[in-house]
Amino acid sequence: MFRSLMVLGIAAIVAPAVQDPAAAKPPEEEYKERVAKIKDNLAEEHFKVGEYLNGMSMFRWGRDEYRKAIGFSANHKEARQRLGYMIKDGEWEPDPNAAVEAENKKTGNEADKVRAEYDKKVQKLGQAIAKQWSDLGGWCEKNKLKAESEAAWKLAIEYDPLNSDSRKKLGYTKQKDGPWLSKFEVAFRKSIKDGLAKAPSGAPHKEETTVEKDLGWKNTKRSSAHFIVEVMGKDQDWLKEEVKYGEHAFAMFHKLFDLKEDLWQQKYNPVFVKGQAEHEMYIDKYHPGDAAKKQFAKKSAGLNGFPTGERILGEGADVHDHIVHNTAELCLEHMVGGRRIWLQEGMAYHFTVLFLGTSDTACVNMGGTGSDGVKRDYRKAVDWPIILRQLVKEGKDPLMLEVFKCKDAAEFDGAEAVKAWSMVNFLATEHRERFMEFLSKIRGQKEDEDEKALLEVFGWTIEDFDVRWKAYIRAS
């Protein structure tokens, strides 16, 4: 009897356990099923938001949600039908007989009320979906799917920037009274703070510059690997500081985007003049426009350009700000092979705020009336996060489409310039790798193709970009 029991015991150990067929699936296969389920949930939730908007006669916004639904689940029947599709020979095709409303019916305050409720629904949806991606990341981690877990956690914080579990898993740390920062961003900001003292300060430049030769001036000059800085009425110690700020900003721009080769093939030559008379002499000699444009330029504080730019001399941080601002702006212009106003201004402010906490150099009226019709002073960068949160809360922030597609800085107001800063800040700190890819993709192409590049790299429409940016602002 004892021997029989022992044999049975051995047999029980050796025999394979009966497994649930679902549990026996390889992790890679189950992962695909879990992702498909989340996408189906996303499609259904976007469809529900679309139905709300349809019920409020905001049909264009509703169609945006239906399109998002079929983006996650191509065969979402109800969303397809709302968009005017029908099944023919097993394929979805436009239904020529479908009666589809395509435009919003409410305007003014009524539209604003719907938009506010719409934003709340999207925000709530984002938090719910983020939880699903975060949980999936945890499941992937347990099943040793490292790349998949990181991808899931990144999607979680994309939908909800306050998802702390995913932030921690990705190595972010919460700053005291500040944002969550990645390991790279923490190190990058430390390099900005600590690296200035070690930055090259150049040496006195003895050769006569083009500006001196053309205008008969005798300036104090200093040059380094990437700069020739000249000034009226200041000494070499003054110039040392400006060269250091310029070289440090140049180095940090290359570090941010992991650039191995210098963007500038020749040195940048900023010229600081002592007053209005000298400024006007410079404009008369170098401005490429007609008399009217020259006259307008004389009212400004300087004439930017590459390789030579000019500015009426300011004091202290104003000059530091100018050097950092223009260095970042010109690096960006060389990097993408052209000007994008939101990128140019946004990147310049991104650097001056990180370096100095200032925004003293501006191509737009930072003290004027914003897009919401309210006069605000946008000159103090420390106020920008508070202003943006309030504008988003009230639904009065500038339209993302107008900021993204702006082709002339003169069209920008203060609120739009600050939103451009925040857009770049969001992409550079939250999505640096994809931002690098986006900048590489738009290099040399027409600006009209940038929207397509955004979709290809990030998977976002401009509207999606705005939704994610707003979530970031609410959380920051």
Topology at a glance:
Blueprint: H1 2-14, H2 27-55, H3 59-72, H4 77-82, E1 85-88, E2 91-94, H5 108-142, H6 146-159, H7 164-169, E3 173-174, E4 180-181, H8 183-195, E5 203-204, H9 210-215, E6 220-223, E7 228-231, H10 236-256, E8 269-273, H11 276-286, H12 291-298, E9 302-303, E10 308-312, H13 317-336, H14 341-356, H15 384-394, H16 400-405, H17 414-430, H18 432-442, H19 450-458, H20 462-475
Parallel strand pairs: 7-8, 8-10
Antiparallel strand pairs: 1-2, 3-4, 5-6, 6-7, 9-10
Helix pairs in contact: 2-3, 2-5, 5-6, 8-10, 10-13, 13-14, 14-17, 17-18, 18-19
Description:
- The chain has 476 residues and is an alpha+beta fold.
- It folds into two domains: 27-170, Ferritin, CATH 1.20.1260; 188-475, Neutral Protease, domain 2 (Orthogonal Bundle).
- 59% of the residues lie in helices and 7% in strands.
- It contains 20 helices and ten strands.
- The strands form three sheets. Strands 5-6-7-8-10-9 form a six-stranded mixed sheet.
- The longest helix is centred in the first third of the chain and has 35 residues, at 108-142.
- The chain is globular.
Q: What CATH architecture of the largest domain would you give?
A: Orthogonal Bundle
Order the strands across the largest sheet as they lie in space.
5-6-7-8-10-9
Query: How would a textbook summarize the main sheet?
Result: 6 strands, mixed
Give the domain tally.
2
Mean pLDDT: 90
CATH class of the largest domain: Mainly Alpha
> Radius of gyration in whole Å, from Cα?
28 Å
Number of strands: 10
Task: Point out poorly predicted stretches.
Answer: 1-19
- The ordered H/E elements are HHHHEEHHHEEHEHEEHEHHEEHHHHHHHH
What is the number of helices? 20
Q: Beta fraction of the residues?
A: 5-15%
CATH third-tier fold name of the largest domain: Neutral Protease, domain 2
